[in-house]
Write a structure and sequence with these properties.
Blueprint lengths: L8 E5 L8 E8 L3 E10 L10 E11 L4 H18 L16 E7 L3 H8 L6 H12 L5 E5 L4 E5 L7 E4 L8 H11 L6 H6 L12 H13 L4 H21 L8 E4 L1 H5 L1 H17 L17 E2 L7 H8 L8 E3 H4 L24 H9 L25 E7 L3 E8 L4 E8 L4 H16 L5 E8 L2 H7 L4 E2 L2 H12 L5 E5 L4 E7 L2 E7 L8 H10 L4 H9 L12 H13 L4 H20 L12 E4 L6 H11 L3 E3 L6 H13 L5
Parallel strand pairs: 2-5, 6-9, 9-10, 12-15, 15-16, 17-20, 20-21
Antiparallel strand pairs: 1-4, 2-3, 3-4, 5-11, 6-7, 7-8, 12-13, 13-14, 17-18, 18-19
Helix pairs in contact: 3-10, 4-6, 4-7, 7-9, 15-21, 17-19, 17-20, 19-20
Length: 656
């Protein structure tokens, strides 16, 4: 998520003046981060009798990586302990926050409600918290715009009226998640987005209303060799246009406008694009009570507060004393999250564990020992080393995002393999793979036969004069049949596509593929692993031993965000969520793509392929849900290229 902009931990203690009075703590638990703000109400700073002024004493910001209780506990201890022990020359010792002093606490955020209930502290809705900050600190503000990791808000203030609050729906278009997704597609860290956008020379149209459509637009720009600088700026412009159009909905945006949220705090270029979008909207308004010569000055239009990313947390702190709020001693508050980190009693949507123990997992792995034909040549170089001329056969699978090559000798043994990302250029990706192959083998390789498949099949076949080109299903069928001659069902799940091949009497009888939606594919898991702060391999490994896998259903990537937040609100741990994704991939395949009436249609000899099945928890989820034994090769992500190499070998008269 957008919080990748930050270091793992952002922590700040602020002491500007001597303060005595009541302390209030606001905790904002969002989909990816926790924000905390400690506020002091001091009558000594007020200008009128009986009035209390609020001063921000300390703030803290950190990614929770789907473990809000664990991270929140450490953040809270660190912040309160630091404040308590702080010694300042301009602060008398009797004004120090001591262990016996009281602190009122409230929680907000998209994941905060469940934790508020379990911890027994008040919950404050985010927009109400933000409105409170405007009321107390920025009374001149007419419009508030807040962009978070997965949501966006706009609040309109009118004197004597209840604030008009607007929020995005389930879709995360026009939010920090959208920015993060673009950074992933560009192959850069999200911290680089602002620097790239500063150097842009052209803005291209990008659909920001939906992650699925925006991804298509961005990949199209990449394939056209549009610069990363222009794509980054175009994306920020799309986010700004989406926020204005989706949230304003025709309502005039009047100054002053307060911007809050992490994206605004850390991406100045986003602020510039939003200013242009809003100012354009204001200029286009035809208002009877506002003559054309009274248009607002852009320089006076925007306010970006010093603590813009903490606005909901600050507002929650201010509201923490409302009603029957519990007041904690500092020592008690530091133990607030104790007992919640391992709590699973509240989980209501769980599935069976994939493996009961590490030992069970290892025994399972031993039973999956497909095809000795993939063993590298032993005791000799890939080129023989005995003076005998060796012919080789090359297979290439040129996908939409990756290029895979496999080199086999004439006995069908694996001599070389390569897997690389296209970065929008299939030709260069294949050329680079060939160069690496020759460098690794140390000499020229005689290619006796070659074959291509996939998205770039015709391009590579023509450009490099390859011998053959075959459709993907035939390549995967050829590879599976070579390893399992009696194969009855082949499931191939790649980064953005899914294919199911039904086999009867050694021949393909039926093929099913996914349509526009890429939910349940490899990018589905990769996206969420990165959002939660984990490498895909680590995410997959945790899933294998989860004891309470959370049932995330079969929703698409866009709407899965809300399901993950629900899981975290209920206290699901990261391994439970990871295992839930493994189940979700297979459920999506079985129930949405294949729509199987009976698992008997799959037969008893099932083979899985594609990079997604390097995740063993996905393989096991298929076994648990169907009750079938499933086999996979040591190189599932290369099976398309392997099938092509076998096809070339057989057509050119190899011995296999």
């Amino acid at each position: 998520m957008f919080a990748h902009v930050l270091k793992k931990e952002y922590f700040c203690i602020i002491f500007n003046r001597v303060i005595k009075g009541m302390y209030q703590l606001g905790i904002d638990i969002g989909s990816t981060t926790i924000k905390m703000a400690l506020v002091n109400l001091s009558p000594s700073l007020s200008s009128r009798e009986g009035e209390q002024k609020a001063v921000i004493v300390a703030t803290a910001y950190e990614r929770h990586n789907a473990a809000p209780a664990v991270v929140g506990k450490e953040m809270l201890k660190k912040m309160l302990a630091s404040v308590e022990s702080q010694k300042s020359k301009d602060r008398p010792s009797d004004s120090k926050l001591k262990g016996e002093e009281k602190v009122s606490i409230a929680i907000t955020g998209s994941v905060g409600m469940g934790y508020a209930q379990r911890l027994g502290v008040p919950f404050v809705q985010e927009v109400i918290a933000s409105a409170e900050v405007v009321k107390q600190f920025y009374p001149e503000v007419h419009t508030l715009v807040d962009i978070g990791g997965e949501d966006s808000k706009m609040i309109f203030f009118e004197p004597g009226r209840v604030p008009d609050m607007r929020m995005n729906g389930n879709c995360a278009g026009g939010t920090g998640a959208f920015i993060d997704q673009t950074a992933t597609l560009l192959g850069v860290d999200v911290t680089e987005i602002n620097g790239l956008a500063e150097k842009a020379s052209h803005i291209y149209p990008i659909a920001s209303r939906c992650g699925v459509f925006s991804k298509t637009d961005i990949q199209n720009l990449i394939s056209r060799s549009v610069s990363k600088e222009d794509i980054a700026a175009s994306m920020l412009n799309a986010v700004s246009m989406q926020v204005v159009s989706a949230l304003a909905r025709g309502t005039e945006i009047l100054p002053k406008v307060l911007l809050c949220g992490g994206p605004f705090a850390y991406i100045p270029e986003l602020r510039k694009h939003l200013q242009k979008a809003m100012f354009s909207s204001v200029e286009s308004q035809k208002s009877k009570d506002r003559p054309s010569d009274s248009k607002p000055n852009i320089a006076d239009f925007i306010i970006v507060p010093e603590h813009s990313q903490f606005v909901p947390a600050i507002g929650t702190a201010l509201l923490s004393t409302k009603g029957q709020s519990t007041k904690y001693q500092v020592a008690e508050a530091m133990r607030l999250f104790d007992g919640t980190a391992d709590k699973t009693a509240d989980l209501t949507h769980t599935l069976p564990p994939l493996f009961g123990s590490e030992e069970e997992y290892q025994e399972w792995l031993k039973s999956k020992n497909l095809t000795p034909t993939l063993s590298p040549r032993e005791g000799a170089s890939p080129l023989g080393g005995d003076g005998k001329e060796v012919r080789f056969f090359l297979g290439v699978d040129s996908g939409s995002t990756t290029t895979k090559i496999v080199l086999l000798d004439e006995e069908g043994r694996l001599a070389y393999k390569d897997y690389s990302y296209n970065n929008g250029n299939s030709y260069n990706a294949f050329l680079g793979a060939l160069q690496r192959m020759h460098e690794t083998l140390g000499c020229d390789v005689e290619i006796a036969g070659s074959c291509s498949t996939g998205y770039g099949e015709q391009l590579l076949k023509t450009a490099f004069s390859l011998d053959y080109g075959i459709v993907e299903t035939m390549a995967h069928f050829t590879a599976a049949k070579a390893m399992m001659p009696e194969v009855s069902f082949i499931l191939d799940i790649g980064g953005q596509d899914m294919k199911a091949i039904f086999v009867e009497n050694g021949s393909i009888q039926r093929i099913e593929i996914n349509e526009a939606c890429s939910s349940g594919c490899g990018s589905f898991i990769m996206t969420f692993a990165k959002q939660l702060g984990y490498e895909v391999s680590d995410f997959a490994r945790m899933a294998t031993l989860a004891q309470h896998p959370y049932d995330l259903g079969t929703r698409c990537t866009v709407f899965m965000n809300s399901k993950v937040k629900q899981a975290m609100r209920e206290g699901a741990q990261i391994d439970d969520i990871a295992a839930g994704f493994s189940y979700s991939v297979i459920k999506n395949c079985l129930y949405k793509v294949l729509k199987l009436q009976s698992f008997d249609q799959m037969g008893d000899h099932i083979m899985v392929q594609g990079g997604t099945f390097r995740n063993h928890s996905v393989v096991r989820a298929l076994e648990v849900l169907t009750g079938k034994d499933v086999q996979f090769s040591p190189i599932p992500e290369l099976m398309g290229a392997y099938g092509c190499a076998l096809y070339a070998l057989r057509r050119k008269g190899g011995t296999l």
